UniProtKB/TrEMBL annotation:
It comes from Aminobacter niigataensis. Keywords: Membrane, Transmembrane, Transmembrane helix. NCBIfam families: matE. This is MATE family efflux protein. It comes from the Bacteria. Belongs to the multi antimicrobial extrusion (MATE) (TC 2.A.66.1) family. It is a multi-pass membrane protein. It is found in: Membrane. The keyword Membrane applies. The lineage of its organism: Bacteria, Pseudomonadati, Pseudomonadota, Alphaproteobacteria, Hyphomicrobiales. The chain crosses the membrane at residues 20-45, 51-76, 97-119, 139-162, 169-194, 200-223, 244-263, 275-297, 318-349, 361-387, 394-413, 419-437.
């Protein structure tokens, strides 16, 4: 869906720095716990001093993420539709959107868990790494996929919470999920010596804990609301609405994951040490991304609410404030990584050759925050407004640019060229979305005014 639904009226509301920060700060703190999972997992496996284990963990994580990020529409689509229903003051539709997402999550999660061996084989084929890396990848993926139903339901829960702008609740859920994951990674992976398998089991347990907590809280909330008719939840038109939005977000997510998978695969072609070094540095990029995702989450909720409320001034203010805060944070992140990145690398990797390679390419990873901030902000705005077709098209265009850059820069400049191609992907994606933001907003709000 690329516009608000025709029913409803204009519902003015104000967007201030306080309203942006009320969502962004808790969500930034929540997202901050997520990269620590990668850092802790990499650190646990890194203590074994084996580059093949680190490379296998990185490759396994990519195989897992390729699958799960393609289902990120469950979170993003739920956020958009709940935020728009929230803007229309339609509590029943908020709940109905949530249950539709849960139905999809459970079915898809069971299918993913059953097909874990196929995912592992596909990952091994794609990475074309050495045998010991493939063995580690296989062990990681087969275990992680057992938690697929829990993970996907958590997408639906987080999407509902973000759609309502409940940043503190989202922080509680993510901190609980990731806290269990981190604690068990240290216990199972390091203390008990399970290594990669321990890290994978810790992730499954964390997802199960997060889902249980989320359901307990939401079911109590829904019990105080009017009971939804089953026909409202399983309305065919509403499911079509959800699937149209989700289809485009899925294509966008798959395109992005293809780019990251190609990045990792090309790193593997440069050798196991380079693969392991890039894995360490990608944790920094992911950490910076989760910082920026806090303000992208604020943009999602506020933009979606403004579209649902048909109130363009709030939309424009949300775009402006979220972007200003995002760029300020990106600059801070780049500075911090440039100053302290080498020390962090030393903590994560014990192998000297991996450390040296990671430090050599540290500036490339540090500046991904600045090159990617516009893409993060535009993604949040376009997801919240449900302009899924535009987001999909610009992502595909950016992927084409990335592939061309990868084919030309990587052979000429090695790993430096590989990182340069990643920066081009981020910049092109952000600039393309920004170029169509104004016309898209005018068309959406003029259409809403005409319908009103």
């Amino acid at each position: 869906m690329d516009s608000a639904s025709p029913e409803g009226r204009v519902t003015p509301f104000s967007v201030t720095n306080r309203s942006v920060l009320a969502i962004a700060v808790p969500m930034t703190l929540a997202y901050l716990t997520t990269p620590f999972i990668g850092l802790v997992g990499t650190g646990v496996v890194g203590q074994f001093g084996d580059a093949a284990l680190l490379g296998g963990l990185a490759a396994g994580a990519v195989a897992f993420d390729v699958v799960f990020t393609s289902f990120n529409f469950l979170r993003a689509g739920t956020t958009a539709l709940v935020a728009q229903a929230f803007g229309r003051n339609d509590a029943s539709e908020e709940q109905a959107v949530f249950w539709r997402a849960v139905v999809i999550a459970i079915i898809a999660g069971i299918v993913l868990a059953l097909t874990a061996p196929l995912t592992s084989l596909a990952g091994q084929w794609f990475m074309s790494a050495e045998p010991r890396v493939n063995e580690t990848l296989d062990a990681y993926v087969r275990i992680r996929m057992l938690g697929a139903p829990f993970a996907l339901v958590n997408y639906a829960i987080l999407g509902y919470v973000l759609g309502r702008g409940e940043g503190s609740f989202a922080l509680f859920l993510q901190a609980s999920l990731n806290g269990v994951n981190i604690a068990l990674s240290l216990l199972l992976g390091l203390t008990l010596g399970w290594g990669v398998e321990g890290v994978a089991w810790a992730a499954v347990a964390g997802e199960a804990a997060g889902m249980a907590i989320g359901f307990v809280v939401l079911l109590r909330r829904f019990a105080r609301q009017p009971r939804l008719a089953r026909g409202r939840i399983f309305d065919a038109g509403a499911f079509r609405h959800l699937f149209v939005l989700n289809r485009d977000i899925m294509i966008r997510s798959l395109s992005l994951l293809v780019a990251f998978a190609l990045f990792t695969r090309q790193g593997a072609q440069f050798g196991t040490v380079t693969l392991a070094a890039n894995a360490v540095l990608m944790n920094f990029f992911i950490a910076a991304g989760f910082f920026l995702d806090g303000f992208a989450a604020a943009a999602e909720q506020l933009a979606g609410r403004a579209v649902g409320a048909r109130y363009e001034p709030a939309f424009r203010k949300a775009v402006y404030l979220c972007s200003i805060w995002g760029f300020a944070l990106a600059g801070t992140m780049t500075t911090v990584l440039m100053v302290f990145g080498a020390d962090l690398i030393a903590l994560i990797a014990t192998a000297e050759d991996v450390r040296a390679a990671a430090i050599a390419f540290l500036p490339w990873a540090a500046f991904t925050a600045l090159s990617g901030v516009l893409a993060f902000q535009m993604d949040g705005i376009f997801i919240g407004a449900a302009w899924s077709r535009d987001m999909r098209n610009m992502m595909v265009l950016s992927l084409v640019v990335f592939v061309v850059a990868l084919m030309t820069l990587a052979p000429a400049f090695g790993n430096h060229g590989l990182w340069a191609a990643l920066h081009l992907l981020l910049i092109v994606r952000g600039v393309c979305l920004l170029a169509i933001l104004g016309p898209r907003a005018r068309a959406t709000f003029q259409s809403g005014a005409a319908a009103h």
